[in-house]
Fold this protein.
Amino acid sequence: MHAFVGGVVVGSSARRGRRCSARMGLYGEALQAAAQSYFADLAILHKYIGIPAEVARIEHPLLMTSSVALLAGFGVKLGFESRGSDYAERQRSLHKVLMASFLGVCALGFGGGTLSYAMQQKEIWKSFHSQSALALLVLLSANAILGISRIRSLHTAVGVTACLVLVVHIATGIQLLFT
């Protein structure tokens, strides 16, 4: 059976799927090009301010290392300790504050890492490191929603998955730092 939709004869769902994914590919490429241009302009501004290239290269890793060590490290520790503890309510509230702060810092770090890539004249969002950062942001956001809805077992599972993605992200970041 065929239907006439938007000036195009649409047949099987396979053809619709191919057409839809091709359209999404075009949108993705357009978003990629726009973001590349935007972050390239920010990189020019960054250089104009007078920040040395080596400082620009290591500022993202240093800032993110400290936030991961402090915010995520203590947040995860408190999250696991709050399960069955005498001080569980206080630990949970501190866990919420630390992990919400970590989510915010990660969102800013995603922008900073993208800017770092642009300053090094690399294509943004193409590396596994960038993709793992995006996956981490999605997992942390989903986990925040699960924490609010009090689905504890799923919140823990997604949290552990986010920790594993964070380890992979750190490993690929260290690899990029020395290449």
